[in-house]
Amino acid sequence: MADAHDSHAHEHGDEGHGGHGGHGHGEEFVPTSSLHDLTLIMCCGIALAGLLWMMYFWGFSGEVKLAEVVEHGAGHGEEHLPQELGH
Amino acid sequence: MEQSIDYWRQVIDSAYWIVAAPFLVGAAIIVLNSLFTSTRFVKTLSMMGSVGAVLYGFVHSLLIFYALAKFPELGPMVKNIPWFQSESFTFSVGILVDNLAAMMLIVVTTVSLLVQVYTHGYMREDPGYSRFYCYLSLFTGSMLGLVVATNLFQMYMFWELVGVCSYFLIGFWFYKRSAAEACLKAFVVNRIGDFGFLVGILWFFAVTYNFWLGHPVLQFFDRGGYDLAGAIDKAYQAHVLDATTLGWISMLMFMGPMAKSAQFILHVWLPDAMEGPTPISALIHAATMVAAGVYLVARAYPIWLLPDGSPGGMGLTFVAWIGTITAFMAATIAMSQYDIKRVLAWSTVSQLGYMFAGLGAGAFTGGLFHLFNHAFFKAMLFLCSGAVIHGVAGEQDIRKMGGLWKTMPITGWCFLIGCMSISGFPGMSGFFSKDEIIGSAFAFDERMGAVLILTAGMTAFYMFRLFFMTFTGAYRGEGHPHESPLVMTAPLMVLAVPSIISGLLGTNPQQWNLSAIPFNGETGKAFANAFGSFVYFGKPHFEGINGVVMLSSIAFAAVGFAVAALIYQTGALTWNKSIAESKNPLVSALYNFSYNKWYFDDLYLFMANRVFLPAFNKIWNLVDMLIVDYIVNGASIVTAGMGEALRYVQNGRGQYYALVIFAWVAGLTVLVYFLR
Question: With CB atoms counted within 10 Å of each terminal CB, which end of chain B scores lower, N or C?
Answer without folding.
Answer: C
